Amino acid sequence: MASFVGKTKLFTILVLWLSILVSFAQGKERWYYEFKYPFIKRASSFSSQSSSFASKGNDNRFDYIIVGGGTTGCPLAATLSQNFSVLVLERGGVPFSNANVSFLRNFHIALADTSPSSASQAFVSTDGVINARARVLGGGTSINAGFYTRASSRFIKKMGWDEKLVNESFPWIEKQIVHKPVVAPWQKAFRDSLLSVGVSPFNGFTYDHIYGTKVGGTIYDRFGRRHTAAELLATGNPQKLTVLIHATVQKVVFDTTQGKRPKVVGVIFKDENGNQHEAVLSENPDSEVILSSGAIGTPQMLLLSGIGPRDELKKMDIPVVLDNVFVGKGMADNPMNSIFIPSKRPVRQSLIQTVGITKFGVYIEASSGFGQSQDSIHCHHGIMSAEIGQLSTIPPKQRTPEAIQAYIKNKKDLPLEAFRGGFILEKIADPMSTGQITLKSTNVDENPSITFNYFSHPRDLQRCVQGIRMAVKVAQSEHFANYTQYDSPTIEKVLNMSAKANVNFVPRHTNDAKSLEQFCKDTVITIWHYHGGAHVDKVVDAKYKVLGVDRLRVIDGSIFTESPGTNPQATVMMMGRYMGVKILRERLGRRAGI
């Protein structure tokens, strides 16, 4: 008995010691980021008394207010702060001390976490596709699969960007947070399979967008630790940069004095305690509020601030600042479909490292395995799932909150064995199908209504069929058969396994394994590359200034008519640096020193 009591006490002491070590490690990490980023503060620390819209002084006013500390907002803020005072307002928290964000093995957790404090905010489009938007400093770079690859030269020309400055801005990002991946076995089998089915040549490791098969960069280092756009803030000027976390902007505020063109004076935001604050621009006419809230957040913010279709704004009792029917229109999401490949042998987790860039407008990528760390939960990482469920067979009107919660619970309770294998992903490069964003309420915390109209254009469906045929050939290659120790499956078996997977809320059809067109429609998912809603010449001008008002600009993926490259994060980060330099040079010339 004494021996048992002694062992129990020892066990208790060990548990307490481990708890102290964990707390110390977390505290050390928090101390580290607070030391490295002293300008990051909680929103409740902000005092707006000396910078209210009614005051005339310049105390506590800002040259630039950036709404959204995401993929574009962070490099943009770091750059502008070299010469001007910058306030960044980010609705989420920091990624640095969040294990769900920081480690590759826990990639799926942030996406599966539906709590209000999660780094991702889930939504379901009206098409029935499950999706997510970032809610954390660093934006999409804090929750994505990490693949880093530049836009094509065609895209750069289409955007009208200065190629010299573009080629200076990409390396600025890459030197700080991008790494060469340690290629996983699944990715090697995938690479060899792509080449065997004709996606050639092999272009080796490169950031460039080149037809054929290649290995791209990653924002995960060799230890599996994520490096996000938030780290780019370290290059900012701490004397001129303020970053507020848990700062949710409610609306942009305009001076709409009778007879004058609407002019932005600042924003209203709430802090983590729900208290409202006013952040005010300096009186300099070149000062600006810059919306960098992403392809969903930016159109939503424009609408909430009174810029959008008059009838829609009046329906929500939002005072009309500017009638613009194009706000929220032209939304697109690159449709993706996947096929599951089972394996008889354990498969190491890998996210996207290798890509096949075809000449018929389809990208082929792959992922594998499952993170099994102690803080992991039993659910797949969200871009596709091997589990079988029944919610997709329930008609849309019967998908009650209870049914959705049951769906989420079933995902979390699945055994790890269900994920022994991997996926081949097929994504449409430049979808011609488009949709729109409309408000459901005036609550900024609530997702707007989002429609992408996947495959409404026949060309998208045609390319999907081509892509699925190629993905099946990849799955049937001898390279995967040798690696998985499974016999090469028939096309019907491959499609059946994937068609039964509960990946969205789209009702299934009995002919999914026989009609590739139906398979594409029924198993469509997302890889979070949505864009549009504030297009050039419709909502913003060539310098991305919002048409019809003064001192308001948009710099993020909402200006795009297509998603750059196979994966957009490289170009979106580059754009933040690029536009920051452009603005400094336009305002200061050689005095910008940049």
TrEMBL record:
InterPro entries xrefs: FAD/NAD-bd_sf (IPR036188), GMC_Oxidoreductase-Related (IPR051871), GMC_OxRdtase (IPR012132), GMC_OxRdtase_N (IPR000172), GMC_OxRtase_C (IPR007867)
Keywords: Disulfide bond, FAD, Flavoprotein, Signal
Cofactor requirements of the protein: FAD
Protein name: Glucose-methanol-choline oxidoreductase N-terminal domain-containing protein
Species this chain originates from: Cannabis sativa
Residue span(s) of domain Glucose-methanol-choline oxidoreductase N-terminal: 294-308
PROSITE patterns registered for this protein in UniProt: GMC_OXRED_2
Binding site for FAD: 71-72, 90-91, 136, 249, 528-529, 557, 568-569
